[in-house]
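Attaching the record inline, Q. Sequence:
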Amino acid sequence: MNQLTLFLGSLAAILLLALAARLLRLGGGAIADEAAAIREAEAQLPGFEAERALVGSDGQAALVHGRDGSVALLKQHGTQVAVRRITPVALRSTPDGLLVASGERSFGDVLVRGAADTAVPPHP
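Structure, as predicted:
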């Protein structure tokens, strides 16, 4: 009986912590919309002037097109957004969306869910 009480108490504590994290909106995030993606790219990339953005349907990734033809790739990383300036040479359309190769091993490939390769203009 003692082990069962310990198990149930531990389970209740875990569920209570998970509920508190959800109520405080901890641990998750999303790129809300085109304006948020543009703000994030311009804030994190010096000299980057955004023209328009394509945000994935799940808010976990975005492509932001710059006025000079450059492209910023954004991906949600916990509560933060990671941003890289890329040359989108490796774009692949998948049934889930557009898979973008960042060219950086540590950043990895990023899926812009719900996007199609027709939404990305050719790189000059």
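The mean pLDDT is 86. Helices lie at 2-23, 34-44.

More tomorrow.
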